[in-house]
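Researcher: Quick test of sequence recovery. Tokens follow.
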């Protein structure tokens, strides 16, 4: 079973604190995000993109040029990682800055949900597409938001302050933002749809 883990940096808001790069087997970035790595003396295994947001292309880093304008740089770098048999990917810089990019990144995550294990991390916490049965640990008193994209059917939750029991969530009608974990372990199950879980890592007790 392939367990190698990837650090991927996109060109959104970068981490306030440099992540522990030693936790990763591969370090990569889209072109515009390379500047953050350079400023923090991190040499990636490769960078890729159409290079429309990078003034100078580095000469000491592997560069993969992906000029196809029909796909985003995020989608193209995921294809590169998938082709190299990397499946577990932590993504930084996917939110912040222009919000259409953020929504586009969520769209891309849904397209890849059956092929890659994607976890997004930002300066507030983490978010990811939930499996139909998802257990999260070490989360007591953390804010948990359940956001359908665009709808999820028959959700049941355990361990949250405001429980759902075989209920539907539909974007534009009803979503589950700003809930709270009352237990250290929560469980969420649902029948169909796409459900993003946002976990605020700050303890709100």
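Model:
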């Amino acid at each position: 079973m392939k367990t190698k883990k990837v650090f991927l940096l996109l060109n959104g808001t970068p981490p306030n604190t440099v992540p522990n790069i030693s936790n990763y087997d591969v370090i990569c970035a889209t072109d515009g995000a390379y500047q953050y790595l350079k400023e923090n003396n991190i040499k990636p295994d490769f960078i890729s993109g159409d290079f429309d947001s990078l003034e100078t292309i580095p000469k000491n880093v592997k560069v993969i040029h992906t000029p196809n304008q029909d796909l985003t740089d995020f989608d193209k770098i995921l294809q590169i990682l998938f082709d190299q048999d990397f499946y577990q990917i932590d993504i930084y810089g996917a939110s912040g800055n222009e919000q259409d990019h953020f929504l586009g990144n969520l769209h891309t995550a849904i397209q890849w949900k059956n092929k890659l294990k994607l976890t997004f991390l930002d300066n507030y916490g983490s978010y990811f597409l939930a499996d139909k049965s998802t257990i999260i640990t070490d989360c007591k008193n953390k804010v948990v938001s359940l956001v359908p994209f665009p709808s999820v059917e028959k959700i049941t939750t355990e361990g949250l302050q405001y429980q759902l029991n075989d209920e539907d969530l539909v974007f534009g009608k009803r979503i589950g933002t700003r809930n709270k974990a009352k237990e250290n372990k929560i469980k969420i199950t649902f029948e169909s749809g796409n459900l993003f879980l946002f976990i605020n890592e700050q303890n709100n007790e």
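The helical segments are 34-39, 73-83, 99-111.
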